[in-house]
């Protein structure tokens, strides 16, 4: 199970980024997304975790103000955010695992 970052570049060179999850192979997810999308999509980063749903939700909250007009999983984020994607996923994963192990109220 993966959290992924996919980049879309339109014909004018504008970049958008999709933060999503999949239980399938990343390449299969990319193929599904590419179908019907006239813009080129590329897998930039992905992170494997059992906490994939929570990590995705937290990343969406982090970049909430960077959502596209379509208000979906596409964001306009900085190069720094792209570069720190894996580190952000790892930190969130570690925090979630710590909470699971040390908080009896977490389910």
Description:
The protein has one domain. Strands 3-1-2-4 form a 4-stranded antiparallel beta sheet, sandwiched between helices. The longest helix has 18 residues. The model has no long low-confidence stretch (mean pLDDT 89). It has 107 residues and is an alpha+beta fold.
How far from one another are the termini? 19 Å
Strand order within the widest beta sheet:
3-1-2-4
Helix content: 40-55%
**How many separate helices?**
4
Beta-strand level of the residues, as a percent range?
25-35%
Whole-number count of domains:
1
Please give the number of β-strands: 4
Rg, Cα atoms, Å: 15 Å
Average pLDDT value?
89
Low-pLDDT segments: none
Q: What general outline do the C-alpha atoms trace?
A: globular
SSE succession = EEHEHEHH
Structural class: alpha+beta
Write the layout of secondary structure elements.
Blueprint: E1 2-9, E2 15-22, H1 26-34, E3 40-48, H2 52-62, E4 74-75, H3 79-83, H4 85-102
Antiparallel strand pairs: 1-2, 1-3, 2-4
Brief summary:
Helices cover 40% and strands 25% of the residues. With 107 residues, it is an alpha+beta fold.
List descriptors.
single chain; 107 residues; alpha+beta; four-stranded antiparallel β-sheet; 25% strand
